[in-house]
């Protein structure tokens, strides 16, 4: 049987596909390879997958186009699904709202409908820590109310959780939603702070530091994230009527997946400076619309249920990212 990984050309999707292939799974990657950020970076990730695993199969299609999704997967026996494809980015949702409705709402519905009709044994999907909005209680726990998103991106991710809950209730479709917290590492996304800062520091350009640097993030290294995703995939929630993480009594769990450490933004910048051997030129700016001051993951639910234990601190992870960045760009 086969695992379908959506967003396989993306940051987390690439790494999840790589881990599954390395342990002998048959993997089909689904991606439309759009130009939200560098298409070349996405192609390079795919080339790495295909070089290391010639049996990896890529389907180029937009899962927000239901006819194209069904047509492209027709006849394939798909056993489990890791749905990581989405329109990402909090700030981009301020200026491009329709992209989020299409990819994150219509696309998510298409995937859970496909999973239902395909008889998938488990669907693991990407939510986001952004659903916590401007909650002030830290750390964020899956039991917290998340009724006040401060970006459309966050609203679409909460809506995805609600749609998945409905499908688990109506059709007993086993699902696990993962609220990711600031994922970083090799092959990362160029729209995220760690990439932007590293690139600017190496070029001697200023970095934009929002809220005067008074921000904290639960930075989570990609290897830890992948370990958590795969553990979830291997452990579908039982349909036994008991309350699950996130509150569902159906076969649906929602987990935080983070490092359970909230680090100061300025400390992360300092680690980039140390890894590059250069001091950052800092441009201090106010908080941006849709952004939050602090994130911090309570991961007790996924620890309890699956034994998830992140092991990589930013002291270890940031230099590994910078080393990869310099190698990839030849700088």
- Cα(first) to Cα(last) distance is 42 Å
Low-pLDDT sequence parts = none
Average pLDDT works out at 96
Percentage beta strand: 15-25%
CATH superfamily: NAD(P)-binding Rossmann-like Domain
Q: Helical stretch count?
A: 11
Radius of gyration: 19 Å
Order of strands in the sheet with most strands = 3-2-1-4-5-6-11
| Secondary structure: number of strands | 13
Helix content: 40-55%
Shape: globular
Task: Report the order of strands and helices.
Answer: EHEHEHEHHEHEEHEEEHEEHEHH
CATH class: Alpha Beta
SS class? alpha/beta
Question: Looking at CATH, which topology would you report?
Answer: Rossmann fold
The main sheet comes to: 7 strands, parallel
What is the count of distinct domains? 1
Q: Could you say what the CATH architecture is?
A: 3-Layer(aba) Sandwich
Task: Explain the overall architecture.
The protein is an alpha/beta fold. The protein has one domain: 3-Layer(aba) Sandwich (Rossmann fold), CATH 3.40.50. 42% of the residues lie in helices and 18% in strands. The chain has eleven helices and 13 strands. The protein has helices spanning 11-22, 39-52, 66-73, 92-95, 97-118, 152-171, 193-203, 222-233, 265-276, 300-306, 314-329; strands at 2-6, 26-31, 57-60, 78-83, 122-128, 175-180, 183-184, 206-210, 216-217, 220-221, 252-257, 263-264, 281-285. The chain has a seven-stranded parallel beta sheet with strand order 3-2-1-4-5-6-11, sandwiched between helices. The protein has a two-stranded parallel ribbon with strand order 7-10. The longest helix is centred in the first third of the chain and has 22 residues, at 97-118. The mean pLDDT is 96.
């Amino acid at each position: 049987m086969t695992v379908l990984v959506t967003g396989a050309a993306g940051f987390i999707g690439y790494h999840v596909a790589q881990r599954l292939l390395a342990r002998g799974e048959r993997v089909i990657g689904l991606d439309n390879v759009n130009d939200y950020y560098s298409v070349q970076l996405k192609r390079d990730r795919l080339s790495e997958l295909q070089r290391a695993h010639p049996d990896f199969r890529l389907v180029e299609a937009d899962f927000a186009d239901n006819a194209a999704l069904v047509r492209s997967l027709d006849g394939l026996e798909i056993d489990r699904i890791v749905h990581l494809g989405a329109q990402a980015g909090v700030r981009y949702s301020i200026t491009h709202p329709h992209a989020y409705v299409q990819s994150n709402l219509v696309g998510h519905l298409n995937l859970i409908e496909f999973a239902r009709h395909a008889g998938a044994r488990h669907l693991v999907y990407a939510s986001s820590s952004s659903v916590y909005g401007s909650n002030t209680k830290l750390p964020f726990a899956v039991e917290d109310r998340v009724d006040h998103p401060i970006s459309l991106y966050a609203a679409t991710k909460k809506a995805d959780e609600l749609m998945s809950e409905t499908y688990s209730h109506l059709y007993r479709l086993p699902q696990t939603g993962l609220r990711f917290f600031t994922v970083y590492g090799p092959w990362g996304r160029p729209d995220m702070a760690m990439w932007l800062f590293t690139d600017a520091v190496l070029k001697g350009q200023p970095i934009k530091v929002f809220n005067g640097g008074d921000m904290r993030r639960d930075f989570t290294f990609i290897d830890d994230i992948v370990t958590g995703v795969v553990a979830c995939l291997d452990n579908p929630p039982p349909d036994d009527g008991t309350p699950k993480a996130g509150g569902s009594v159906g076969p649906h769990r929602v987990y935080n997946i983070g490092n359970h450490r909230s680090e100061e933004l300025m400390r992360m910048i300092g680690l980039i400076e140390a890894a590059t051997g250069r001091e950052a030129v800092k441009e201090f700016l106010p908080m941006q619309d849709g952004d939050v001051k602090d994130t911090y993951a309570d991961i007790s639910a996924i620890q309890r249920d699956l034994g998830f234990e992140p092991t990589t601190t930013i002291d270890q992870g940031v230099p590994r990212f910078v080393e990869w960045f310099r190698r990839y760009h030849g700088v």
